Amino acid sequence: MFNRHKYVQISESDLVKHVGPDTIASLKHDGAAYFLKINEDGSANWISRRESVHGGFPDKTDRLPHLASIKFPKKFAGNVINVELIHTGNQDVEKDSHRVVSGILNSLPARAAEQQKLLGPIRAKMFDVISPEFNTYKEKLAHLKALQDAVGKPQILSVVKTYEPHEFDTLLQKTRDEDLEGAVFTSSTKPESENPRLKLVHKQMHNLKVSRIIQEVDINGNLKPSMGAVGVVDATGREVANVGSGWTKAEREAYWRDPSLIILGQLIQVKSRGIAANRLRGPVYNGMADGNIDTVNTQQA
Length: 301
Fold this sequence. Notes:
Blueprint: E1 7-9, H1 15-18, E2 23-28, E3 32-38, E4 44-48, H2 65-68, E5 80-86, H3 98-105, H4 109-119, E6 123-131, H5 137-151, E7 157-159, H6 168-177, E8 182-187, E9 197-201, E10 204-217, E11 223-233, E12 239-243, H7 249-257, E13 267-272, E14 275-276, E15 279-280, E16 284-288
Parallel strand pairs: 1-9, 6-7
Antiparallel strand pairs: 2-8, 3-4, 3-5, 5-6, 8-9, 10-11, 10-13, 11-12, 13-16, 14-15
């Protein structure tokens, strides 16, 4: 598909070694990574950055009526932009939810439109430029701001908010207090060819396959008519977790009554606090997966 910038994961203790006066940061959103491809006629395609388990890179433009209705100025024709599709409810101020985004994007078009009328629209946060090429990230941000201003719909299409070095402590505290994924750091002036994005995450995300459904039990050990957890395996076929958190009561009851609703072999996204004894620590269901199955790195603490 399209090439994207290189990302390097770092720890909070390593951050000081990478921060300079030209470093800027942004929140790492809990959404879906997509490409925005602007066409010659001002229309656009919204294409998943992750390859489907069925092959190819899904085009979900028909699931995004608010974004698909945008007519882009012709001077931006041919642009390819990295965006994060997020859902924050009816206002662009609430915590984003991958679960809602994945649910909408994996629905049929009519259902996706209906859900967004009820729950609020999926919004696009622009954070990088694939085409045209620019020498520095500062130049890319200026281009993205010009695109945002030209479209004039910042409530659904906007540039990610950036933070300066003196704001980094506040930013990281915000990610901890609000249980957010983390933040991304990069130089604004270094040539892009030698300027990786530094990803500092509190939670790890994994696309994993449902291998079995486990019945729920009450505090006395009695079986309940509901699902307690699902077993999940990674790309090697190794079971790496029983995921029992993140499900609603209604989901637990529905999936136990009809396991086909969460088909064995289906991919889900699981959020964790890392790895311990070759298994995920604190695994939580985070919605349907939007790409290929991952291999869990057993060396990662």
